[in-house]
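For consistency, the fold was encoded as tokens, as this record shows:
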Amino acid sequence: MLSLGSVRSRRSVVLAACVAASIGFAAAPAAASDDHVAITVTLPFPGGFGPDDGVTYRLAGQSAFYSTRTNGVTTGGQLDGLSSSGSPHLIEYTEVFPEASLADYLRYGYFGVLETVVDDGTGERVIDRSFVIAGRFGAFDGLAIDSILPFFQESELVDALVNGFDTPEFFDALSAALGNADLLGDMTLLSRPDLNGPVDTVRAGEMLGLYALIGGVPGEEDRAVLIGDLSASVLRVVPSPGALALASLAGFVATRRRRA
């Protein structure tokens, strides 16, 4: 799943490739790389329920899967709509603008809204919406939201994420999350220097837990409960299949020119 911005960027890259092809490739292009991102999410069914009970968790609202780079941060809604059904989930996409060095990919995190959904055969009902955030295992068990993201109230943040888009609350939460080391995990970095060769581990990353504010005593502040997990990796393939195809086309065009 890609954000709209990523889709538009992909179209620009395809257009640039077509323009380059029309020029005729006087020389073969240098070998390039493709960076393939994989996000794995485990979202079990609510406690005590199974696949046939009609009760599931679902990630919703304007969420943010964010990753930090040497020179900035990217965000996207890649996890939107994932549910307990079909878990674990694997989301894969190719970076439109890959980093210069694989080591430029640093850390990742996530926050959004967790819906508890009931479907009794007559249609689904959302019976609860709670804030959910990724963090290091053991760091947030039993904590209230102001101990995770200071100065926030859960109800106001959930309302902003469900009923708004690019709200001040969204950006404030993103800024606060990026400033908390316990809300970020190292991305796993992988490299395949030969298309037919093995994958090398450049850096082993970290799995993060998914903490939802669904625990605690009724009538008091909700407390964080571990409900699932996620991890993220980047696989760099050098040279990329696309680069090899363009190089072959360049050689073909050059041969035709010499024969002409």
